[in-house]
Write a structure and sequence with these properties.
Bound molecules: pyridoxal-5'-phosphate
CATH topology of the largest domain: Aspartate Aminotransferase, domain 2
Strand content: 5-15%
Structural class: alpha/beta
Radius of gyration: 22 Å
Distance between the termini: 24 Å
Number of strands: 15
Largest sheet: 7 strands, mixed
Number of helices: 16
Helix content: 40-55%
Number of domains: 2
Length: 409
């Protein structure tokens, strides 16, 4: 960072402060992670200087012999890790990847089935404020109000009634295993394309710690920067028959030059994700998440679906004096980072919803285990149960400092 300090001390200082913040707090945001130094190096490499519009061996610029090798390696590694027939590694991020699939396989105005945002689905699964919801006639499925779990029967009924072109599965705030096979079977019955968005759980899927939607699902999208622990970016994996339309929609349909430095770093992350160490990491994410859930429940905290099968959990704040926004702020005062989130059938507005979402991928990367997760669960419960008690806040601030100090050594 020596050059940066000299040329732009302001940005340099802010980056340093951000690095300190990341070190001095407990990151329980389930969509975040810490990339390895190897991934960082590839990301900061000279590959950022290169224009490579097109695909390997069919570029619009000269000088791409090494870039082609890099992109082909990224494709090959993703194919092997996820058992995909075809992979596109160029999407700039998860949101454009999803939009590209919709535009490649449906026409604006066509019907698509997706999970409602307030029930765990992603903004790009058809929410009205998102381009997905504006361009297409999205029908949204919800979870069962009693069990708070995906209601596969409702998906089938909606599919029979609306005959969608695509059925989207996958979620951003759902703590349980998703039965991708069942959703694919429903898609086949109504002759829809099945699409699974595994952005949150890609690392768990890659290591068989969550059932994979591959190879049977028609199209699978994922971000690379969540449990997969790579740089920001996305993959689209699909059956051969959809490859040409999807590739053409990414380029030249939606994007120009691919971010080859990101693609190089994605290749590195995919290599890391295929090691026994990552396998162990992935299992530990779930063990930690379940230890955290148990510790919270022991202190009387209510969880959506009463627990978790994956890397995340949702606290139901309805019995508490504070709601999502205040809880997020309160925990931040103790340097515990979480995010406010709606819960199914939320009586509150999305600006101050009845839940907070917590996850263990980042802390697990830092080496935290069940013992620390139990302690962290107790601290969070104490804060949520005594939100206006200054003494409790001071006590928990000290406890968090201590956990981080022990762990940093
Ligand atoms: C994070 C996420 C996305 C979007 O990814 P961005 O890279 O933020 O655009 C899409 N779908 C799901 C399910 C996600 O969790």
């Amino acid at each position: 960072m020596n050059n940066l300090q000299k040329i732009d001390p302001k940005i340099s200082q802010l980056i340093q402060k951000e690095a300190e913040r990341q070190k001095r707090g407990l990151n329980l945001i389930p969509s975040e992670n810490f990339v390895s130094p190897a991934v960082s190096e590839a990301l900061a490499s000279v590959c950022t200087n290169k224009y490579a519009e097109g695909y390997p061996d069919q570029r619009y610029y000269s000088g791409n012999q090494y870039i082609d090798e890099i992109e082909k390696l990224a494709q090959k590694r993703a194919q092997k890790l996820f058992r995909a027939e075809h992979v596109n590694v160029q999407p700039y991020s998860g949101s454009p990847a999803n939009l590209a699939v919709y535009l490649a396989l449906a026409q604006p105005g066509d019907t698509i089935l997706g999970m409602s945002l307030t029930h765990g689905g992603h903004l790009t699964h058809g929410h009205q404020v998102n381009l997905s919801g504006k361009l297409f006639n999205f029908i949204q499925y919800k979870v069962n109000p009693q069990t708070q779990r995906i209601n596969y029967q409702e998906i089938e009924e909606l599919a029979q009634k609306h005959r969608p072109r695509i059925i989207v599965s996958g979620a951003t705030a759902y703590p349980r295993i998703i039965n991708f096979e069942k959703i694919h079977q429903i898609s086949q019955k109504v002759k829809a394309v099945s699409m699974a968005d595994i952005s949150h759980i890609a690392g768990l899927v890659a290591t068989q710690n969550h059932p994979s939607p591959l190879p049977f699902t028609d199209v699978v999208t994922t971000t690379t920067h969540k449990t997969l622990r790579g740089p920001r970016g996305a993959l689209i994996m699909c059956k051969k028959q959809y490859a040409t339309s999807i590739d053409r929609m990414i380029f030249p349909g939606m994007q120009g030059g691919p971010h080859e430095n990101n693609i190089a770093a994605i290749a590195v992350a995919l290599q890391e994700a295929s090691t026994p160490a990552f396998q162990k990491y992935s299992r530990q994410i779930i063990k930690n998440s379940q230890a955290l859930a148990q510790a919270l429940q022991k202190q009387g905290i209510k969880l959506v679906t009463n627990g978790t099968d994956n890397h995340l959990l949702l606290i139901d704040l309805r019995p508490h004096q504070i709601k999502g926004k205040e809880a997020e702020n309160l925990l931040e005062k103790a340097k515990i980072y979480v995010n406010k989130n709606t819960i199914p059938y939320d009586p509150q507005s999305p600006l101050n919803p009845s839940g907070v979402r917590l996850g263990t991928p980042a802390l697990t990367t830092q080496g935290f285990r069940e013992k620390e997760m139990k302690k962290i669960g107790e601290i969070i419960a104490l804060l949520l149960n005594h939100p206006f008690d200054q003494k409790v806040l001071e006590k928990t601030q000290k406890q968090v400092k201590k956990i981080i100090k022990i762990h940093a050594s």
